[in-house]
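Reviewers of the previous submission asked for a worked example of the structure-prediction workflow described in the proposal, so we include one complete record here. The input consisted solely of the amino acid sequence. No template or homolog information was supplied to the procedure at any stage.
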Amino acid sequence: MTQEHNPHGDGRYIPILDGWRAIAILLVLLFHGMYDSDLTGHPRLVLPALIAGRTGALGVLVFFCISGYLITQRLLVESRARGMFSIRDFYIKRAFRILPPLAVFLSVAAALSLVGVITLKAGDWAAPFFLSNYIRGSWETSHFWSLSVEEHFYLFWPVCAIVMGWRRAMWVGVGLICVVGVWRPWELKHVAVSLQARTLQHTDMRIDYIMMGAVVALAVEFYPGAAIFLKRLGNSFGLAILLVLLVATTRPAPIDLRSIQAILLTLIVCSSALADARLPRLLLTNRPILFLGKVSYSLYVWQQLFLGPTRSTFWSSPYTLPIKYAGALLMAYASYRFVEKPFIRYGRAFVSRKAS
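From that input alone, the workflow returned the following structure tokens.
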């Protein structure tokens, strides 16, 4: 493995993770596009819609796994270099990374609501405070439930690492994963079926997906055998088996399979990044895929305005999906090019000036 493709230990860019971001956002887009399309009279689209319904949620969960793994790895690199990472710098970078595209989107949504193009609800105030996974708003901000879960992780995990140290924090993460594995099925049994989808958006119901990635990053750091195991698992054959098992977890089952699903997702993402095998690299690091990975956050932010429910017979047709996807992609690129990327650069420069 050349240094260019060595994804661990030195904080370098990991192309395969951007590839997984692209896959994640494609699954989300396919699900949202199909979910609010009128499939009546389109029998050929029933099967794609069924697949999208079963796998769409996996896209968000892939984002969770990547966040836990990548954030922990980057903090570990800084800890090695400086003795401990700067929590101030971490939050400054996160703020410049996340808030500007979100602020622009919410401003545009508010303007569209004022002129009657969309209808916002009282609960939309929760979006900028990262409470959308507990407080219901309109469709236009409902997707921010997953961003809320990630922000809660950002608030908890760095503080845990500083207070307890990385090794103890790893076992805190393991304990939290085990607690969620018991809590989630118990909670779902005591919630009405109509409320289960909303309940599953709560941080306490999904934090294990992020924590799995964080724990794997720490295991690789402290236990060489874990890295060896993941590298061997991350070949094309191993990943194919894991993907088949993962899809199987999306089928209805008499027991809750989400904890197994979290393990499989983590193994797929982390082992493929570590092994950096030829076929996964070919599939996940080509230019179109990497482009989608780069703009995935902006695409995640903006897609809701293009793929939402509509009263128009024309725009509710699944045949208009290419137009909707193209519009969302163009808006995402503009957001990435003129908002997201400049503010990321400015945040890094700001931290560098403060350090000097």
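The two ends are 35 Å apart (CA to CA). We consider this example representative of the routine output the project will generate in years two and three.
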